[in-house]
Amino acid sequence: TDPSLIRNFCIIAHIDHGKSTLADRMLQSTGVVSSRDMKAQYLDRMDIERERGITIKSQAVRMPWEVDGVTYALNMIDTPGHVDFTYEVSRSLAACEGAILLVDAAQGIEAQTLANLYLAIESDLNIIPVLNKIDLPNAQPEKYALELANLIGCEVEDVLKVSGKTGEGVEDLLDEVIKQLPAPKGVADAPARAMIFDSVYDTYRGVVTYVRVVDGMLRPRERIQMMSTGTTHELLEIGVSAPNPVPSKGLGVGEVGYLITGVKDVRQSKVGDTITNSIKPATESLGGYEDPKPMVFSGLYPMDGSDYPALRDALDKLQLNDAALVYEPETSVALGFGFRVGFLGLLHLEITRERLEAEFNLDLISTAPNVVYEVMREDKVMITVTNPSEFPEGKILEVHEPLVSATILAPAEFIGSVMELCQGRRGTLRGMDYLSEERVEMRYTLPLAEIVFDFFDHLKSRTRGYASLDWKADGQQIADLVKVDILLQGEQVDAFSAITHRDKAYAYGVMMTGKLRELIPRQQFEVPIQAAIGSRIIARESIRAIRKDVLAKCYGGDISRKRKLLEKQKAGKKRMKMVGRVEVPQEAFIAALSTG
Ligand code: GTP
Q1: Mutate which of 10, 11, 14, 16 to test ligand 1's pocket (most atoms within 8 Å of Cβ)?
Q2: Which of this chain's residues are annotated to bind GTP (predicted)?
Q3: Does the complex come out with an ipTM higher than 0.95?
Q4: What is the pLDDT of residues 113-126, one digit of tens each?
Q5: How confident is the model at residue 279 (pLDDT cuts 50, 70, 90)?
Q6: Candidates 20, 113, 134: which one to mutate for ligand 1, based on the most atoms within 8 Å of Cβ?
Q7: 54 CB less than 6 Å from ligand 1?
Q8: Rounded (to 5) percent helix, strand, coil in the chain
Q9: What does pTM read for this prediction?
Q10: What is the spatial distance between Cα 386 and Cα 369, in angstroms, rounded to a whole number?
């Protein structure tokens, strides 16, 4: 296709502002999907995505659209909608010339609207401001058009108004995409360069890689090279999604499509990498490539120890489709054999866990998630700690923890309350802007560990649900962090060790010892539960001794009842874990971890 007839764009929006609905409507308006075949949310392929109503993986669709008698090819590139996947969003944006900035006409601008807009501006995209859901009775298109115009510095009249639901304004929007966005530019006779913006494992076809060609041309049966690793592959098939795959004789400057090489593992075809021709390679890659970096680690253990090999196989399978998933075996006194698994964020963790349970039929326990620390030991060696148990005892010079820059949007009346929350989480205010009289944007730097677990819940409850949050990784800082261990009768219980700020160590110790005192049944002897930093005890509880005689309850001669009780006790024993001399039901560990 002649590059002047191509337009590459994406839709960026806050969650639930209607991106998928609008994308579906565009597929229908351009006729690539008939109303009959229209499955709601065509672009969300995975069941789990549909279930949760979120988009995790990006994909591109080519749609024809005619303006003034000329037919153009519109490539719509779908972007994932959650903070865990910021890097993937940035690569999808880099594959486009422009973005539709979609805002719910009943809600106005939200934190993700801003975060995505900033990313789009960093990628030099042209922005088309659009208000969606104008059919809603409580829509306030005039008010929010003004807000949006102020934000991006355009005229109010330039803000388009659509309804993805009724289709109103959608055809005009497609016209504007062609009129307002520039055609892609590239050098047709240069060595081929294409950027990978998505990579998906398919059971039948192996890895399907989505690319945007920048220079030159990629043709079937050529040998291609991944520029980050130098590995080469035969290009078996290349084509466009319309939205079903249509093979082609080659993709040239500005084109967007898929390719297949027969590799079986997405790590051989990495998002952000540049593909070139291995016979006539480009000298410079397109830039912007980053290795996926797990931000949050958690131990995953099968409830039933005999499921350990099944868990390993399941993780191996998931990794084919998920370059960001990393894991290695670990063992725990409390939980047995399992894996330490790295994730991009908490949502990524939840999705992975759900898939392991639903698709592989496993019952799992996960330990409290932790972020990754860099620790400088006394001998000046820097080590990476992904598990609290690896935290060196005593001899430490510095601990570095990951930081994020966060964007919080809230009604102005809640400023004080939001500030209080952020200060309690060791945050630093970086700036504050009023988007309108009643709405404020606050920018904070916060430790990742302080926001990754329950920060959003607290933010929501302090602002009666009106605040929105977005964040991205932003370097590291040195902090006064310590490891708190939990001891049962002097014996350390590894699954409960945590790395916390020194000021919060006491609170963690009190919370955890208190919880375990409730959960662990009495033994024949007194059991002290302690929280300690190194050898210093910071909190203490104890479980009083009892003489546990289950038969004492059965007065008289009902022998069958006695037998039943004895059997019950035996069955209960099987699920007991021994920590030193203390018997702990596995459920107690699970309960302590799950409410943590
Ligand atoms: P994520 O994929 O989770 O980011 O959400 P999304 O932005 O893709 O939103 P989605 O298209 O799933 O729409 C969110 C909700 O808004 C759904 O319940 C839609 O039915 C509804 N919705 C979307 N567009 C419109 C619209 O134009 N009018 C009305 N009334 N509702 C809409």
Answers
A1: 16
A2: 16-21, 132-135
A3: yes
A4: 888 898 899 889 99
A5: very high
A6: 20
A7: yes
A8: 30, 35, 35
A9: 0.78
A10: 10
